Sequence to fold (298 residues):
Amino acid sequence: MNKEMDINVKSGWMMLVIDILLLIGVAGCVIGLIVTAKHGRIPTSTGILLIGGGIVLLISFILVSSGFFTLQPNEGRVLILFGDYRGTARKDGFHWANPFMTKQKISLRTRNFNGEKLKVNDKRGNPIEIAAVVVWHIEDTAQAFFDVDNYEEYVEVQSESAVRHLANCYAYDHGEEHETTLRSGVEEVSHALRDELQQRLTKAGVRVEEARLTHLAYAPEIANAMLRRQQAEAIIDARKKIVHGAVSMVKMALHDLSDQNVVELDDERKSAMVSNLLVVLCGEAEAQPVINTGTLYS
Fold:
């Protein structure tokens, strides 16, 4: 595993002055050669000196010029000399480095990977559709460049694999008591996805900042059946609350009637009252009162 190293690069402005001086030197050699030629035949030694010096200065100028590079904020350059990694420059500005070095630009900015909808099975085997967004940035440039073939493609493939594994570890909904599901445990599921992605992407020098589900639904072939199931369960839960409340109200009514001596009720009359009250409180249609002018025994 490679590790990122810092490298000290020279100021581009200082080397620019040197580069300009080299260019002036080249121009001086050319001018000297022309001026000397106008005054007669150029001595062999002087001509060779001017031509050789001009060539050397020109080559130096070209080499120095090829060493300049700029860096914007949150941008880096991986410097490689004849296949040997020498370090990464991260400081923004105008810089100069050995012209024989290969300077590979790499972005250190935060990026988003918005994954496509995946059709997978949840923990209970139900087919679901799931998608996630991953927020990440390059933390170690050496690992990103040398430990994986293509770090952007690596992030995409590993993100898809992590989302599939996550879906297999949790039920979509209707889990056991106190069980975390994909729908109910959004925060826990997001943390689990982020931790798994970080483990997978550390090899590529990537830091995962955030990972969240952006789409979660049953697959179309079972969506209608699951919707009916959810509706039925919602009706059952509502009925349970209604019955529980009705029983409490009936109990309170009988208790108050007895304590305040409003009416004396035997067991049979209590049963009739309980039946009537439950019909009124639990029925969906509006109840119509019936006035009994007689007794239960006639």
